[in-house]
Amino acid sequence: MSDKPEQEAPIDAPRKPMFYDPTEHRIRSFVTRAGRLSDAQAKAIEELGPQFMIPYEKQELDLHATFGREAPTIFEIGFGMGETSAKISALMPEKNFIGVEVHTPGVGSLLKLVGAAGLSNQRIIQHDAYEVLVNMIAPESLAGVHVFFPDPWHKARHNKRRLIQGPLVALLSSRLKKGGYIHCATDWEDYAVQMLEVLSAEPSLRNTAEGYAPRPDYRPVTKFENRGLKLGHGVWDLVFEKQ
To answer: Which position among 151, 190, 217, 237 bears the catalytic label?
Structure first.
């Protein structure tokens, strides 16, 4: 129900090391897959990558230099194929957007959309979002964070691989300015329950709604989401603000 490509089946025990980074002592919430890179996506990476992609470095990012202006910056984790990201960037040209995605076809897809729409306020980092946040994003520098339809890891034994966990939420909050927000959305009800519990437990955040929030106007309804809504499937948005 999102604009992301279908998730591959989780990899079981024999290949478990793919998920675990022994240098960080944490379980990764994604599986790196090659995927098929279309000619158009490859061309977008070659032609637009130098302008819109930011190399991962263990060095704090200068947002003013990156965008050539001072503006509120929104950080998105896992933009999939980028349709929602491009629409939001186009809707809010007064804001800067940094999208982080590990999968190359998604990076190429968003770059293609950026080029087609002539967007100047979107940048992309192809790397693990956790490491980007730790090493590149300064404390209290972001105006908002978007996490739309992350992998639900729906099997109970894989729930620990879900992205929205206490340590990450605390890290995200530390990177937000006072009054900044975290906006999550999911179409898996049990993940929505977990998100609500985890976000509510972070003392630096407050819920902007009584439980789940109405979908903010800036988040477009994807074709997959719209199809699910017509079938009676639910979608849950959560919007928490840094106190």
So the answer is: 151
Q: What is the CATH number of the domain that holds 164?
A: 3.40.50.150
Rounded-to-integer distance, Cα 96 and Cα 99, Å: 10
| pLDDT tens track for 169-185 | 999 999 999 999 999 99
Known binding-site positions for S-adenosyl-L-methionine: 76, 101, 128, 151
Catalytic residue list contains 237: no
In a domain, 196, yes or no: yes
- The number of domains in the chain is 1
The reported pTM is: 0.85
Domain containing residue 166:
13-242
Return binding residues. Answer: 76, 101, 128, 151, 155, 187, 222-225
Q: What does the pLDDT look like over 44-99, one tens digit per residue?
A: 999 999 999 999 999 999 999 999 999 999 999 999 999 999 999 999 999 999 99
Strand segments (E) across the chain: 20-21, 26-27, 73-77, 96-100, 122-125, 142-148, 176-186, 205-207, 236-242
